[in-house]
Specification:
MetI-like fold, 13 helices, mainly alpha
């Protein structure tokens, strides 16, 4: 009982701090989400029930943003985890001998996403970008990377190149933690490396794979800064993610109640995805 009381006393400042930092904005978002609120009525919101949620769910732009975020999050998560797993397995012997190579491989992850978006915007600019210029000079082909036909593939590639190192780090740690006794026993039995990977190593790494897929999907689903600095909402709103939709609804159109309702829906979706990922991870661990 004494230990519990001491733990409660020691944890109390942290709990109060988290409640102050996270609790107040959450309660405020809930209040604004069920109120008719704009910048003019910010201090005196009028209760409107579920009207904001009905407006959001009836907005075609919201569903377009949700579909973009879902596709973008799923595709980038799969690509990043597939490339990260391949790199981790292939480069594990090199990393074991030269650990400093990891520092080079994670450089894209260190750069701020907004800076990466600006960098790609300069590199891929249709008129001033060096990549379209040299493609036209060498191959006679100058694609418009930020046009409606190619912009989705462009942002997927940009996101994948930046965050594959994150998946690589997770998978490298999981791969290196597999006991060498298992690999040696498989080698003595004459198991080929490829078969050893599929039957021994990959099953042991599955919990990490599920965690990496979930983290990267959530990060891709709520993407904002790199896409917004690269191409904004995109031509015809083709790259409007959920976060960009909330941002523009809040600041561009001043519909604070509607923006908070969309944010609450995004939070509920992320919470349900977290619960599903936890169940999948437990099953994989068993």
């Amino acid at each position: 009982m004494t230990n519990r009381r001491e733990n409660a006393i020691l944890a109390a400042p942290l709990v109060l701090f988290l409640l102050a930092i996270l609790g107040f904005p959450t309660v405020l978002a809930l209040v604004y989400g069920v109120s008719d609120t704009s910048f003019q009525t910010l201090t005196s919101p009028e209760f409107s029930g579920l009207a904001n949620f009905r407006q959001v769910l009836a907005d075609p732009t919201f569903w377009q943003a949700a579909w973009f975020s879902l596709r973008f999050g799923a595709i980038t998560a799969v690509l990043q985890c597939a490339l990260g797993l391949a790199l981790a397995v292939y480069l594990a012997p090199l990393v074991r001998l030269h650990g400093w190579t990891v520092a080079i491989l994670i450089i894209p992850m260190i750069v701020a996403p907004a800076m990466m978006g600006l960098m790609y915007r300069l590199v891929l600019h249709e008129f001033a970008g060096p990549l379209p210029h040299y493609l036209y000079q060498w191959l006679g082909w100058s694609p418009a990377f930020l046009s409606p036909a190619h912009v989705f593939k462009t942002v997927v590639v940009a996101e994948t190149l930046q965050w594959t190192p994150f998946a690589f780090l997770l998978f490298l740690t999981a791969y290196q933690s597999i006991p060498e006794d298992l690999r040696e026993a498989a080698a003595v039995d004459g198991t080929r490396p490829w078969r050893r990977f599929w039957t021994i190593e990959l099953p042991l790494m599955l919990p990490t794979v599920w965690v990496a897929l979930f983290i990267r999907f959530i990060d891709g689903f709520r993407v904002f800064d790199n896409i917004y600095t690269l191409v904004g909402a995109g031509p015809g709103g083709s790259t409007t993610s959920m976060s960009i939709y909330i941002y523009e609804t809040f600041l561009r159109r001043g519909e604070i109640g509607k923006a908070m309702a969309a944010a609450i829906l995004l939070f509920v979706t992320a919470f349900l995805a977290l619960a599903l990922a936890q169940r999948l991870t437990r099953k994989a661990a068993r």
